[in-house]
Amino acid sequence: MLKQESSNQRISGVALAAVIALASVLGGCREKPAPAPAAPAPAAAATDAAASRTREQAMSALMALPELQAWSIQLEKASGGKVRGALIEYDSAPRVINGKSYWQFSFVENGSDAAHPWDSFLVAQQGSEILVEDFGTDTPLTLEKWRKEKRPMARTSGEMIGE
């Protein structure tokens, strides 16, 4: 019985973390962006491209993807608001691929009893690259390849992972 209670506590902790992560992303999405400068100097543009992306910026970039927006809407609509889409950082240590560091997140179906993963993403800490974990081949996919091969806009449940 004690083991079951700790499992329930762990699930509750994951669900709470997902809700907090989603709230921070959605809260950040409502802010108006600062107006862009008219014509940045070439040196300034190079510096901006090299600037590190924060964890919150990485989450915002993921939640801006049309697939994740559609999944979130579908989950809320199908459940009458009882289930929501959320992001969970599945490893706080950056993953390094070819010398480039990535934040690691999973999009989850966050219900009252558990969080069910749909897909996992790698968001470059520098630059705008987003990759999708392909656990079947253990090779990250570009967004373009993921969209073509996995057809994420057709997904209606987390059960399609690994297809």
Task: Map the helices and strands.
Layout (H helix, E strand, L loop, with lengths): L1 H28 L12 H9 L4 H9 L2 H14 L4 E14 L2 E11 L4 E10 L5 E3 L8 E2 H8 L13
Antiparallel strand pairs: 1-2, 2-3, 3-4, 4-5
Helix pairs in contact: 1-3
Structure notes:
Helix content is 42%, strand content 25%. By secondary structure, it is an alpha+beta fold. It has one domain (2-31, 53-160). β3 and β4 form a beta hairpin. α1 crosses α3 (55-63). It is globular. The N and C termini lie far apart (36 Å). 26% of the residues are buried.
* Proportion of helical residues: 40-55%
H/E element sequence: HHHHEEEEEH
Q: Beta fraction of the residues?
A: 15-25%
Through-space gap between termini: 36 Å
| Largest beta sheet: strand ordering | 1-2-3-4-5
Radius of gyration: 17 Å
Largest sheet: 5 strands, antiparallel
* Total of DSSP H or I helical runs spanning 4+ residues: 5
Tally of domains: 1
Q: Can you tell me the overall shape?
A: globular
Number of strands: 5
List low-pLDDT spans.
Answer: 1-48
Helix vs. strand class:
alpha+beta
The whole-number mean of residue pLDDT values reads 76
